[in-house]
Design goal:
Rossmann fold; about 15% strand; binds magnesium ion
Length: about 120
Amino acid sequence: MTQEFHEANRLTPEGEQKVALVDIDETICFYSGKRRYDLSEPNHENIAKINKLYYLGWKIIYWTARGSVSGKDYRDHTLEQLHSWGCEFHELKTGSEKPHFDLVIDDKAKRIEEL
Ligand SMILES: [Mg+2]
């Protein structure tokens, strides 16, 4: 059977909603001691950078590996944190939706400091 191919866009075409996948820990919140999710402290300067993208029309998807190693469900707690920190977003993906990793190599990656 012959597979058919189409020409794919690298980025969302002009005029359509762009999508940003945004990490949570060590991106919009940090730890001053124990690295336990309930002890994470928001960084409002970084949250404001993401909120700015949201208000510019980007689709914001927070994407965290919280729970992917432990198997614990941190979704509700994380949602509460995001809301209480004033984060504007469209979706939250947690647990197995993002595996644990030590390095991301991606042509579209930026550190929060670069925004
Ligand atoms: Mg992180």
